[in-house]
Write a structure and sequence with these properties.
Layout: E1 2-8, E2 13-14, E3 20-21, E4 26-33, E5 36-41, E6 44-51, E7 64-75, E8 77-82, E9 88-92, E10 97-101, E11 108-113, E12 131-133, E13 136-140, E14 158-166, E15 172-180, E16 195-203, E17 209-216, E18 223-231, E19 253-260, E20 265-274, E21 278-285, E22 295-302, E23 330-331, H1 333-340, E24 344-345, E25 373-374, H2 376-383, E26 387-388
Antiparallel strand pairs: 1-22, 2-3, 4-5, 5-6, 6-7, 8-9, 9-10, 10-11, 12-13, 13-14, 14-15, 16-17, 17-18, 18-19, 20-21, 21-22, 23-26, 24-25
Length: about 400
């Protein structure tokens, strides 16, 4: 994972009622599709909507079409995600609840609480993360619940509970122990001694999971961002345990994929596909301290998870050309539109170019291709592939 650059967030913005407010405390971000994003502000009822064009090489900006959304409810909203139904889901750190909102009006649609063990949160160390992929909703507390262990220190880390539930049914899929790293330096004298906690999760298509850890300490740099690839396979499901202290459990495994000296980076989400099978990742910086500014941080992610595509998934829902603007994890009408702009022999007479997924007959299964030509057979093949990528 590599840092590509930063983009400044404009302020102030106007909401759906033309009321103006200053952008501050950005704590979470999610992709809405078509290059549009939503960022939630903590300790408020505000969401910021914006467009951020990102070229296939990762070049980003400037931010455009910025607008505000005032929610019908307030809270310490630390993360945000787009549901399958197109609504906005936020997590409230104070109440440890999920709240679903209408993306146009901001009206509350539903609210759901976490299992009772999460009520044992420490102040300002509750829910910080939220992500949805493959029908699963992921979240976690920032640092250990009082029944699970201690807060992080310069010498020891903290244990938190990753949790996933089925978006359609609300059924819990499991909880897993995750070990947060120690602070990267000494305790800061005064009322804010520092911390090290899990500030975001990003679920990737195909089952990948990223965790963002944020550390604040008396060190150079003051803030340290660590991003890990997480694997729950083989880890103990701790959903039935009232406490993790003294329990014999296997935590999730994690692999460091990025470390950087950003300031208060709290949120992260997956952006568009990039050249050479990469993904753009967008982070938001919370300016609630003297050192951080309202900033969108752009990364490139390689080699983790599914890039969202499958056979026949060659474009986004609009089939924009060029570039195709995909894949988007779905074989749909956009892919048919894209094929209309690709009909003809493959460049260089080499079979298997973009859109060449079948022979002239589009036989299924197997497809019997590629055959070096984007033609009617590929349309026939798409008819048998319509739907969400496996």
């Amino acid at each position: 994972m590599t840092h590509l650059g930063d983009v400044e967030m404009p302020s102030p913005v106007s909401d759906q009622s033309a009321a103006s407010f200053a952008v501050a405390g950005l704590s979470g971000v999610c992709a809405l599709g078509g290059g549009r994003y939503a960022a939630v502000m903590d300790n408020s009822n505000r969401v910021v909507l914006f467009d951020l064009p990102i070229a296939p090489d990762g070049t980003a900006g400037p931010i455009a079409n910025v607008a505000g959304l005032t929610l019908a409810f307030s809270g310490d909203h630390e993360a945000i995600a787009l549901t399958q139904g197109g609504s906005l889901l936020v997590v409230d750190e104070n109440t440890m609840t999920f709240r679903e909102a209408n993306p146009a009006s901001g009206q509350l649609l539903s609210m759901a609480a976490l299992p009772p063990v999460y009520a044992e949160r420490r102040p300002n160390r509750g829910l910080e993360s939220l992500s949805i992929a493959d029908g699963a909703v992921w979240t976690a507390n920032e640092e250990a619940l009082t029944v699970d262990g201690n807060l992080a220190s310069p010498s020891t880390g903290s244990v938190v509970r990753l949790r996933a539930h089925d978006q359609s049914t609300g059924t819990e899929m499991g909880q897993w122990a995750y070990l947060v790293e120690p602070m990267h330096g000494a305790i800061i004298p005064g009322s804010t001694p520092g911390q090290s906690g899990l500030s975001e999760l990003v679920a990737l298509p195909g089952g990948g999971l990223l965790a963002v850890e944020r550390s604040l300490a008396l060190a150079d740099p003051l803030f340290l961002t660590r991003i890990y690839s997480v694997e729950t396979t083989g880890a103990t499901d701790v959903s039935g345990l009232p406490s993790l202290m003294g329990s014999s459990i296997t935590p999730v495994t994690k692999t460091l994929v990025y470390q950087g000296t950003h300031t208060n980076l709290e949120g992260l989400c997956r952006g568009p596909a990039l050249n050479n099978d990469g993904w753009a990742m967008l982070g938001v910086v919370d300016n609630g301290d003297p050192f951080s500014e309202n900033t969108i941080v752009v990364f490139r992610l390689d080699g983790l998870g599914d890039t969202g595509g499958c056979l026949g998934d060659i474009a986004d829902d609009f089939g924009s050309l060029p570039p195709l603007g995909g894949p988007d994890g779905m074989v749909s009408f956009g892919d048919f539109l894209a094929l209309l702009g690709l009909i003809g022999p493959c460049p260089g007479a080499q079979p298997g170019c973009l859109g060449d997924i079948a022979d002239d007959f589009g036989s299924l299964p197997p497809l019997g291709g590629p055959d070096g030509m984007v033609s009617f057979g590929d349309f026939l093949a798409l008819l048998g592939l319509i739907g969400v990528c496996p």
